[in-house]
Amino acid sequence: MLIFFLIRRNAWERHVAIGYLAWVKLRLILKVVLVIIIITSRPQNGVGVLLKDTFILWIVNFILFGTWYWIIDAGGPRARHDGTARRYDFAFPQRMLPLKGWENWQPGFWDYVFLGFSSNTQFGLGDTQVLSLRGKLLIMLQITLSMAVVVFMASFAIALLR
Fold this sequence. Notes:
The protein is mostly helical.
């Protein structure tokens, strides 16, 4: 029934349906955050602290590498903004393909954080290719650290739960 409202031509009904879907997603996100807060606010034994630290390291990993990618790509944010950019380190599809509406697009900070997140989560790349050696080395380091955090620390914590 909700799909019917999303494809209807009446903008008011479509906005109501999208608002409802957004409300449902927001409630789900708040429930997950509440569970994390409850778990981390309890007195922690070794397993709880280790799981919390694993999660924090995972987040810090993709934010740190996303920031590094933002700093190094094509000589940095100032060079990209001024138009004096050197060779690109990352081939974002919006920048490399002739897409309508994306002709003068330049990646922003959050595009690089997304690159870090997708590399962290997939242990590889999403839609962005790495062009330079320094970018490849950073991606390799990030994936190695991410695997170490997720595989070793989380598996050790889960083993302690037994």
